[in-house]
């Protein structure tokens, strides 16, 4: 147990963060090079103010037409992403680890709240999975890559929840949880989760075109 | 569900596919993907989360409830995704379906932009699919004919040079009966305005040239048209994916205006031509914006209105509804000017359709779809059911639609769904209502 | 006043020693009052069985002295509550109480390759 725990919280954690950070940086850099080589006519129209205008307007729930037309999905998407970020970043136990390993400490949220946020993430994942099974248009579009992304995100939250409540075999669960989290980090640059890295730029480009050239809203 | 269950026989698609082999397809698909696309397509393909939010966007999908193969992402799923996933290794039969979707089941109207949180431009993806199909030689016959006409004559309708000037002189002659001082000035150097039209105007909508001349005359505009190739601002090559020809005809158009040293181009009530001049053609020619100022008729008429140069003898009886053409609304944000103009011209309210301004539902004719001709008319009309429902709900008798393609599409829609509505250009209404001196 | 303060301190210290000496024998959990209401279940720690099992005879291994964030293993401090030196909120270079506990236990367990290292292994429900 100790050797396994030390391995997954030590070398494997460095590897996962390394893949996540360097991988994302590499993908961004190579995508920018590709854009410069092949998408100069698009780059030429990029504008900070219209990019921000678009990003801000899309971050407001029910502001864009698409959000308004699918209310359940909108609620699920916003709540999911907020909880997905807030729960792991401000979880007491995670901040403890930062403190333990690097002596870094910052604000946390109570465990009872994180517990709910985690359940919300799990619930949202189930909602997304349900759509992929039951809603014909989403089912039609769904590929293996989409299931993979969903499972990769669900796993750390599910194992985290089980580990926190010490249900099933705790020692196994905590190691599974750490590994699942690391898989998620490492997967970000190379799976559908890369929208975490790229979406801000695709959104910004659309905002720039619509703001600067088309003089119309893109939300 | 899917395109394979609704293939439509088309001579152009069939003959194109018959010449293909898997090797040719692989080579050409990859040549376009590697040579002409980059980060934009790559990020779109990668970050599409397959969430289905865009299903609510597309009039084709709304008109075929329960059939996901008509949704924007569903259409990408059957076309570009296949080409990317299989790295171009698809058989000729698959290309038939891919081409049919790209040319006839997407109007490139970009309404889905308002539905995609990550900002994917499905219009761009479908344009790129068309580009590949063009390079494969698989294009619907009717639209390819117009594209050939562009290549051969620099206009869309096989209008010969002498027929063009002859038509202008004919319309000038007719109009002088009504407005004796009227001229259609040809090749007038240094004029304020270079007026350009689409080739269907001299071919079968000549009254539009008449009306434009009458409005220019009454507004006292310093304007001209060119007698030389370049007078046609339309661009079906943009829609077939023949971007080389798109660039060539746009260049001729701009240069014919520059040669006359005019201050700016005013173009008739056309949507796709505006897209070509303002967005796609200019960029292919490496102009960030157009090399000479270009404005659409909506903006020009709006200027005339604000400057008090349109004097109305009467107002057009309303209420009316307004159809927002995608290329000048989502493409240029002219929706408010359009409404100000309509309020000025019409006696009565504007009854908006449920989807209006940037969020308008497409006429289902644009993007070259109507130009794919009779084989695909039924598909097109079926796809406009959602639009028909919205139009019907307004309860009005008049649709103001400042775009030729929208007119063509809406006429079919109004007829098929028995809406009993008339469709008007702004020019129709201005001409009908403006003060004209007694002869 | 100047004379009474050290006396008082001495008295308090001896009282604490006696208390500690008594309490450690049947100590089951680490739940210093200084931390107040605990976030997680108190860390389980059976003082005597643990030391027996871990063969810890020398108190100073855990009950170290030191100052300014430096441990001094030559000064044994058994009988002094940890919270006396390790304040809940760390002062200056001194290690905070919670971090001190975590480091004390986990670092040793890691070094020995034995004993609990993950949260729920001590903070059992």
Distance between the termini of chain A: 51 Å
Strand content of chain B: 5-15%
Rough outline of chain A:
globular
Number of domains of chain A: 1
Most strands sheet of chain A: none
Biggest interface between chains: A-B, 53 and 50 residues
**Average pLDDT of chain B, to the nearest integer?**
97
The number of domains of chain B is 3
Helix content of chain B: 40-55%
Uncertain residue ranges of chain A = none
Query: What's the pLDDT, averaged over the residues of chain A?
Result: 96
Helix content of chain A: over 70%
Q: What overall geometry of chain B do the principal axes of the alpha carbons give?
A: globular
| Biggest beta sheet summary of chain B | 4 strands, parallel
Which CATH class of the largest domain in chain B is shown? Alpha Beta
Structural class of chain B: mainly alpha
CATH fold assignment of chain A: Fumarate Reductase Cytochrome B subunit
Query: In total, how many beta strands of chain A?
Result: 0
CATH architecture designation of chain A: Up-down Bundle
Give a short summary of the structure.
With about 220 residues, chain A is an all-alpha fold. Chain A has helices at about 1-10, 10-40, 40-45, 50-60, 65-70, 70-90, 90-100, 110-135, 135-140, 145-165, 170-185, 195-215.
Structure explained in plain terms:
The complex is a heterotrimer of chains A (219), B (439) and C (125). Chain A is mainly α and 219 residues long. In chain A, 80% of the residues lie in helices and 0% in strands. Chain A has twelve helices and no strands. The N and C termini of chain A lie far apart (51 Å). Chain B folds into three domains: 3-139, Orthogonal Bundle (Fumarate Reductase Iron-sulfur Protein, Chain B, domain 2), CATH 1.10.1060; 151-305, Rossmann fold (3-Layer(aba) Sandwich), CATH 3.40.50; 312-433, no CATH class. Chain B contains 22 helices and nine strands. The longest helix of chain B is centred in the middle third of the chain and has 18 residues, at 161-178. In chain B, 60% of the residues are buried. The model of chain B has no long low-confidence stretch (mean pLDDT 97). Chain C is mostly helical and 125 residues long. Chain C has one domain: Cytochrome C3 (Alpha-Beta Complex). Chain C has five helices and four strands; from the N terminus they run H-E-E-H-E-E-H-H-H. In chain C, the strands form two sheets. Chain C has a two-stranded antiparallel ribbon with strand order 1-2. In chain C, a hairpin with a 2-residue loop joins strand 3 (65-67) and strand 4 (70-72). The longest helix of chain C has 22 residues, at 4-25. Chain C is globular, with a radius of gyration of 15 Å. The model of chain C has no long low-confidence stretch (mean pLDDT 81). At the A-B interface, helix 2, helix 5, helix 9 and helix 12 of A face helix 3, helix 5 and helix 15 of B.
